[in-house]
Amino acid sequence: MLHTARALLRSALVTLVFIAPASQAKDPQTDRQAEQDGVPVTELRAFAEVLERVRGAYVNEVDEKELIQAAIRGMLMELDPHSAYLTPDQFEDLQSTTSGEFGGLGLEVTMEDGFVKVVAPIDDSPASRAGIQAGDLILKIDDTFTKGIGLADAVELMRGEAGSEVTLSVLSEGDEKPRPVTLKRDRIKVESVKSETLEPGYGYLRISQFQSRTGQDAKAAVEKLTANGDLRGLVLDLRNNPGGVLGGAVEVADLFLDSGLVVYTQGRDPESRNNYEASPGDLLNGLPLVVLVNGGSASASEIVAGALQDQGRAVVVGTRTFGKGSVQTVLPISGDSALKLTTARYYTPNGRSIQAEGIHPDIPIQVASVELYQERGPRESDLPHHLINQDGEEQDSDGSEEPLASRDYPLSQALSILKGINLAERRRPAVDDGKNTASQ
Prior knowledge:
This protein is α+β, with helices and mostly antiparallel strands. Helix content is about 30%, strand content about 25%. The protein contains 13 helices and 19 strands. The protein has helices at about 5-10, 15-20, 30-35, 40-55, 65-75, 90-100, 125-130, 150-160, 215-225, 245-255, 300-310, 405, 410-425, and strands at about 85, 100-105, 105-110, 115-120, 135-140, 145, 165-170, 180-185, 185-190, 195-200, 200-205, 235, 260-265, 275, 290-295, 315-320, 325-330, 340-345, 365. The longest helix has 19 residues, at about 410-425. The radius of gyration is 28 Å and the shape is elongated. Residues about 1-25 and about 435-440 have low confidence and may be disordered.
């Protein structure tokens, strides 16, 4: 017998559900108290009855613990694609992923219409090498169809011992039927930050995922690019970056901001808003910054792009981002399991919700495959007895290095935009301080 409905809900809800047979007599006084407190007694009785019928009449004997876990998973799956019940193994895998090393295929996935959808392949992983792209649907993992099995279960099926194989049935946009892709699992070590010099004076910073050390690593990479003092601009590449640790995203955005809001989260409670502010000091000292995004840029990468866009610090180019603007909190529960629950939404400094909308680029750049036409007609230097350039030796490219536009068209366009910004700022007339002016 229940003493109060609140006591039922807080301490013995599961016990009540599983010990109450369908034939148990109703207690009108308890029911009235429960209704006043908002406890769905009728639905709890229906749940208890269903459980009892399954235990007594299902064709195979079932394990009660597995039924409980299945009920919890089903409840969370109905909330949104990102809330989930994590078994101890799944909880451990999640912790490994955020630390930057885990075993599997190198895919960040979500659920869409009951199917597993690729958010982004991780750089230099079995998935990226096999040509799996953001937006692909995974219909089958070996012999298991993914429709309705749940995201955590699908991820678990794709994980495994390094060297073992798994076959995915992959449907890409525009294809009429899925194609089988056999992948060999590997130990995924995510190097979240890479950098290089694209051309003299123009740097490139690639962040493939936000981890606990990403902010520190990105700072070190930018400092290395600026060490010579000749940097004139930077491309920040967040394409196919599925997100990760919120703190890492805030730290990266803070590298390029002097002050102001980076992002804020808002939960159901009006008092639950959390602001994340930038600290003083722009690592680039105001140098031009272009952020490159695409449909695989999600969550934490959208936070960075949105913050730099709203603050007017960077030009965002590429294609519309994924639109994953919700906050998941991992809540450990008894038995080393955990609950991954959506608790808030992300908002950009200007109050834009990222959820299901994404970040729209300032300058759209479509993905394209470019075949360059090599224009080569006769030049002055080809003419016999031509005069030698007195300022230096004549040079002519031998074409041994593949042009950037052929290797990565969106990146080549981002670099061109960066150069244009730099050129425009260099040619901007100096601001008159007013000392040499007079009223007319």
